[in-house]
Specification:
Blueprint lengths: L2 H14 L5 H13 L3 H15 L8 H12 L16 H23 L23 E2 L2 E3 L5 E3 L6 E6 L2 E5 L4 E5 L12 E6 L3 E6 L5 E4 L3 E6 L7 E12 L8 E4 L4 E4 L3 E6 L5 E8 L2 E5 L2 E5 L4 E5 L4 E4 L4 H5 L5 E8 H12 L2 E4 L7 E7 L4 H10 L4 E4 L2 E4 L1
Parallel strand pairs: 1-8, 6-8, 11-12, 21-24
Antiparallel strand pairs: 2-3, 2-7, 4-5, 5-6, 7-10, 8-9, 9-11, 10-11, 11-14, 12-13, 13-16, 14-15, 15-18, 16-17, 18-19, 20-22, 23-24
Pfam families: FecR, FecR_C
Keywords: Membrane, Transmembrane, Transmembrane helix
Protein name: FecR domain-containing protein
C-alpha cells in the first residue's frame, strides 16, 4: 500500500477516534475535496459504518441504506456510481462535510450507547512513549578545543579566529566571514561542526559554499582556504552548494572516497551504518575516486561505493528522494523497513530492535520530518508492521 493511502487511513482513524489535530482535520478535508482518493475513502466509510451500524438504532434499515448510499455516491441499487469529473467544488465540499458529520455521528453512537444495549467501547491505543522530531542542533569545536553549543548560542558574533569572524545568523545558520584574511600570513585553523542524532544544521563556509548537515554528521574545515584546493572532510550526510572557483577546486573527503568539484550541487551520504556510500549530483559535475574506482558524474547520476568493493554509477536517479531530508521530508522509493527505521533512529534519536528479524516489506511515499515518531510509525502499522515505541527504543516484532 502506498504512503498516500496509508496517510488517508491514518487521518480518517484520527478523526474517527477524536484525536485529530486541527491541521489533520484540514488535511483530511483537502484530500476529500481533491477526489483522487474516493475509492479508498468509500472503503473506509463502509468499514466504519459496519462497525457502528449495530448500535445505530436511531435509523431504520431504509434510512441507513439511503444515508450510506448518499455519502458514498451509490445508485439506488446499492452499486457504486462512477465518479463525476465535472463535479462542482461546492458539491464536493458538501459531500466532505457530510462524511465528517457521519463519522462524528458514529463516534457519538459508540460513546453514548443506549442504556439497554451492551456495548464494548474500543479505546484508541496511544503510544506510552513518543519521540519528538529533530531540529537545528549542532556543536562547533574550535581549533583550541573550545566548544559552542549552537542551538543554545545567541545570534550574532560567536568567535574570532585570526581574521575570520564566526557568526550565528537569525535564521539559524553558521556563517564564516573570511573577508579580512587576504593579507594575513597566519595559517588557517581547523574547525569541526557536528550534529547529534536528532539534529541538523547549515553552514556557510569561508568561500561562500553552503553546506547542510543531516543528523549524526560532522564537517571538518579550515577557517579560510589557501593554496590550490579547498578541502573539507565529512562523516554522515551532507548536501553541498559549492561556490565556483576554477582556480581552486573544492574537495570532499569521506571514509570511503574523495570527491572533487569546481562549482556544483550534490549530496553525499556516507554513514558508517549504511552498506553503500552514495554521491548524487544535481548540478554541474564531480569526479569521484575510491581505490581503483573512478567516475565523472553528470546531473541525475549517482555513484555508489560499496564497502565490499562493488562500485557503480546509477543513471536517472530521483534526486528529490536523495535530498528530501534537506527540505524537511522523509521520502522513500522501494525502501525496506530497515532503511526507513535507520533514518528514523538518526532523526528521533532512538534505537531500533528487531525481535524476529527485519520484515520483508518495501514502501513508497513521503511524510514530513516535523511529525512525532509515532506518526511515522503509525503509517508502517497500517501496512501491517508490528512495532511500538518504548522509551528510547523502537521495537519491531
Amino acid at each position: 500500500m502506498n504512503t498516500s493511502r496509508l496517510r488517508l487511513r491514518y487521518l480518517f482513524d484520527r478523526y474517527y477516534s477524536k484525536t485529530a489535530t486541527a491541521q489533520e482535520r484540514d488535511e483530511l478535508l483537502t484530500i476529500i475535496n481533491d477526489g483522487a482518493a474516493d475509492e479508498e475513502l468509500s472503503l473506509l466509510i463502509r468499514q466504519a459504518w459496519e462497525d457502528i451500524k449495530p448500535n445505530a438504532t436511531l435509523f431504520n434499515a431504509d434510512q441507513t441504506n439511503a444515508m450510506l448510499s448518499k455519502i458514498l455516491g451509490a445508485d439506488a441499487s446499492g452499486n457504486n456510481a462512477k465518479p463525476r469529473n465535472n463535479i462542482f467544488l461546492w458539491a464536493k465540499i458538501s459531500t466532505a462535510a457530510m462524511i465528517l458529520l457521519f463519522v462524528g455521528f458514529g463516534i457519538y453512537i459508540k460513546h453514548h450507547p443506549r442504556k439497554q444495549q451492551q456495548t464494548t467501547l474500543v479505546k484508541v491505543k496511544r503510544p506510552l512513549h513518543d519521540a519528538l522530531p529533530g531540529g537545528n542542533k549542532a556543536i562547533l569545536t574550535l581549533a583550541n578545543g573550545k566548544t559552542i553549543i549552537l542551538d543554545n548560542a545567541q545570534n550574532g558574533m560567536l568567535a574570532q579566529q585570526g581574521s575570520t569572524l564566526i557568526k550565528k545568523t537569525a535564521d539559524g545558520q553558521l556563517l564564516y566571514n573570511a573577508a579580512g584574511t587576504a593579507n594575513t600570513k597566519a595559517a588557517p585553523e581547523i574547525n569541526v561542526i557536528s550534529t547529534p542524532r536528532g539534529g541538523q544544521y547549515q553552514v556557510i563556509l569561508p568561500d561562500g559554499t553552503n553546506v547542510w548537515l543531516n543528523s549524526a554528521s560532522s564537517l571538518r574545515f579550515p577557517t579560510y582556504f589557501t593554496g590550490t584546493t579547498r578541502q573539507v572532510e565529512i562523516t554522515g550526510e551532507a548536501y553541498f552548494e559549492v561556490a565556483k572557483n576554477k582556480a581552486m577546486p573544492f574537495r570532499v573527503k569521506t571514509n570511503h572516497a574523495d570527491i572533487e568539484v569546481l562549482g556544483t550541487h550534490f549530496n553525499v551520504m556516507a554513514y558508517d551504518d549504511e552498506a553503500v556510500m552514495k554521491t548524487t549530483l544535481l548540478e554541474g559535475s564531480v569526479n569521484i575516486t575510491s581505490g581503483g574506482f573512478s567516475a565523472r558524474l553528470k546531473p541525475g547520476q549517482q555513484a555508489q561505493i560499496n564497502k565490499t568493493g562493488q562500485n557503480k554509477v546509477i543513471n536517472d536517479v530521483d534526486v528529490d528522494d536523495e535530498t528530501a531530508w534537506k527540505n524537511g521530508i522523509f521520502q522513500f522509493k522501494d525502501a525496506g523497513i530497515d532503511v526507513i527505521l535507520r533514518q528514523a533512529a538518526r532523526w528521533y534519536d532512538v534505537d531500533i530492535t528487531y525481535k524476529k528479524g527485519v520484515p520483508a516489506r518495501e514502501f513508497n511515499g513521503h511524510i514530513s520530518r516535523n511529525v512525532k515518531a509515532s506518526e511515522l510509525l503509525n503509517m508502517l502499522k497500517y501496512a501491517g508492521v508490528d512495532l511500538k515505541i518504548e522509551g528510547k527504543d523502537i521495537i519491531v516484532y
